[in-house]
UniProtKB/TrEMBL annotation:
Keyword list, A-Z: Isomerase, tRNA processing
GO cellular component: cytosol
Entry function: Responsible for synthesis of pseudouridine from uracil-13 in transfer RNAs.
Organism: Arenicella chitinivorans
InterPro entries, A to Z: PsdUridine_synth_cat_dom_sf, PsdUridine_synth_TruD, PsdUridine_synth_TruD_insert, TruD_catalytic, TruD_insert_sf, TruD_pseudoU_synthase
One Pfam family in the UniProt entry: TruD
EC number(s) recorded for this UniProt protein: 5.4.99.27
MF (Gene Ontology): RNA binding; tRNA pseudouridine(13) synthase activity
Name the record gives this protein: tRNA pseudouridine synthase D
Any one Gene Ontology BP term: tRNA pseudouridine synthesis
Entry annotation: catalytic residues: 96 (nucleophile)
Domain TRUD stretches: 172-317
């Protein structure tokens, strides 16, 4: 994806969706086409917390199944039902709307406070478990998500699809943020440009957070696409910050034989920037990243001014427990991803998608 001073154009005239579609493919453009999310049941997501609530404490944890419901709307409905403020309801992560998903919510109900959860009603939503815990559920608490996906109307050589799936299971995929991060019809990006580059205020705190996140994700995707084009998305460059798989731990690579072994085993990964305060060319490596973002300097400078810390994100997604079955023109597959990684970024390496949602 070539930026070519892309922000010199007005945000509302840029085709963000087209630019997103040009992100690089590790294995080349897929030769097989298929339809995802034909119905919500074709895209099922289960949150894997890694522990169970303790059974006592001030916070009521609710295991919720939702179908075609927004995570935030479910949280608001739970708050209203319990008679508490919205801030007293929390969840670990946002889940897809056009899908069937299972995830935990927590509601702060200290002491003897309780509510009749069996009488809770919201279209497409069901509380399947109620359990108390000593702590509230914080963002990013869950470890992984398990996906069960059906792709319909396959068209193309299934032998090539099998090869692509095998490669993905062995080598992983570029860890792109999915299109859903940028809003419906990519509407978050014009808002990001107007806020961060033109100084247009966003009064709603939640919307401001979403817009800033979209901008950081866009820049990360751009750097990752450059690394994919250079065939270095799965290699450690000299003095690159590396990530330990399944954690937020980052360390500077030394190029040792042990690091190369762990890299090949997908135990450590190269990283890319989530731009924020202090992002900049503090090293030759970071200077190269800033050069890749030359066409987005206004967006970079805007993010450096806001109150958000710069972070690193792995460039590679390890696809765990991948299984698949092809029957006629239908593909059924299951796999597990670390929290914050996108199933659609796995699918795009294998299938030219027709999203029906």
């Amino acid at each position: 994806m070539n930026s070519n001073s892309v922000l010199h154009h007005r945000a509302d005239s840029m085709d963000w969706q087209r630019a997103f579609s040009r992100l690089g493919y590790a294995g080349g453009c897929p030769q097989v086409h298929g339809a995802i999310k034909s119905v919500p049941e074709d895209f099922q997501v289960t949150e894997l917390m890694g522990f169970e609530p303790e059974g006592q404490g001030e916070h009521v944890w609710l295991w919720v199944r939702k179908r075609q419901q927004n995570t935030e709307q479910v949280a608001k409905a739970l708050a209203q039902h319990a008679g508490v403020a919205y801030r007293d309801v929390s969840y670990s992560g946002m889940k897809d709307f056009h899908a069937v998903t299972w995830q935990w919510f927590s509601v702060w109900l200290p002491g003897d406070k309780n509510t009749d959860w069996q009488s809770f009603t919201l279209a497409g939503t069901e509380i399947e478990r109620v359990q108390r815990h000593t702590r509230k559920l914080k963002r990013g608490t869950h470890q992984q998500n398990r996906f069960e996906i059906i792709v319909r109307d396959l068209a193309g050589p299934t032998s090539v699809l099998e090869q692509s799936l095998a490669r993905v299971g062995c080598d992983g995929v570029p860890n792109y943020f999915g299109a859903q991060r940028f809003g419906r019809q990519f509407n978050n990006m014009p808002l990001a440009v107007s806020h961060l580059c033109d100084g247009v205020a966003i009064k709603k705190r939640h919307l401001k957070s979403i817009v800033i996140s979209a901008a950081r994700s866009w820049l990360f995707n751009h750097v990752l696409s450059e690394r994919v084009s250079a065939a270095s998305w799965n290699r450690l460059l000299p003095n690159e910050p590396a990530n330990l798989h399944g954690s937020n731990s980052v360390f500077t690579s030394t190029g040792s034989d042990d690091e190369q072994r762990r890299l090949a085993e997908l135990d450590i990964h190269p990283t890319g920037p989530l731009v924020g305060r202090h992002s900049g060319p503090d090293s030759a490596f970071e200077a190269q990243e800033m050069a890749w973002l030359e066409g987005y300097q206004d967006l970079v400078h805007g993010l450096q001014r806001v109150d958000v810390a710069s972070l690193r994100r792995p460039l590679r997604t390890r696809v765990e427990n991948l299984q698949w079955q092809i029957q006629g023109t239908q593909l059924a597959l299951t796999f597990t991803l670390h929290a914050g990684q996108f199933a659609t970024s796995v699918l795009r390496e294998c299938i030219a998608e027709t999203d029906q949602s």
